[in-house]
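Weekly structure sync, notes
Attendees: PL (lead), two postdocs, one rotation student
Agenda item 3: pending single-chain targets
PL asked that the sequence for the first pending target be pasted directly into the notes so everyone works from the same version. It is reproduced below exactly as submitted, 301 residues in total.
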Amino acid sequence: MQVTFLGTSGSMPTPMRGSSSVVVRLGRELLMFDCGEGTQRQMVKAHVGFQRHMKIFISHLHGDHVLGLPGLLQSMSLLRREKPLHIYGPIGLVQYVKAFSESLGAPGFPVVLYEIRESGVIFYSEKYQIIAVPAIHRVTAWSYCFIEADRPGRFYPEKAKELGVPKGELWGLLQDGESVMVEDRVIESSMVSGPTRHGRKIVYSGDTAPNPELVELSRGADLLIHESTFMDDLAERAQEDGHTTALQAAEIAKEADVKKLVLTHLSSRYPDPLVVLAEAKPVFDNVVVAEDFLELTLELE
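Predicted structure, written out during the meeting:
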């Protein structure tokens, strides 16, 4: 599983930072969180394909988080995309997509829109689920949590051989966590596998002031991607605008006991990311400040 930061700026992009967008690559599937202006260009530079099975999760309808959608949909249409694209976001998403589609032309492929009306699980499959909770911002906004389903433990072929399980289909079933019959004996997956491997968990804050509900959702996360628009000398301004400081984000990560914190959505007043990092690191050590095209790999335990 790979996480790529396509855009890491606050409301104003800079020469080094594009507007907000993060993608999670799950095999051939792509999950995108926010789609700021120019996201399709960033995808090209990051070698993120336009033809993958894809879902987009929009945190809120401010331009720096959503103005990339018209260009992205047009690029996909030009490339003759056929696969459906699923987009989730706050109330108003349907009206927004309808408005630019009427002006620019409708996408040449199915676009399925979901307006979130209450917190909870907004997508569920056997592989993963997505949970949304309200963010604390100037407009209706959502924070998102990706939770991967647990995986069977590591398969040990030598144990399967010792128990007389022939290589082939039965090994595959055992690797999937199922039991098999061998000469009237039941062979449990646990007899040839290690402990269950917990699925990975990624939290994306979007724009928000410090939020106790998000702290609870983030507990034990492998990766917390949290906005840090301001530094702590502007904490009062951050609260007024519905944002978080780097220090506050570090305190959230510490309270939620996450494994790694990535700070993003930096104001253009902070061209040196080391200044932002210096404020957060004394509170939470495993923290980095995102740069455009930062790539992180999350391995299974």
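Discussion points:
- The radius of gyration is 21 Å.
- The mean pLDDT is 95.
Action: rotation student to compare against the earlier draft before next sync.
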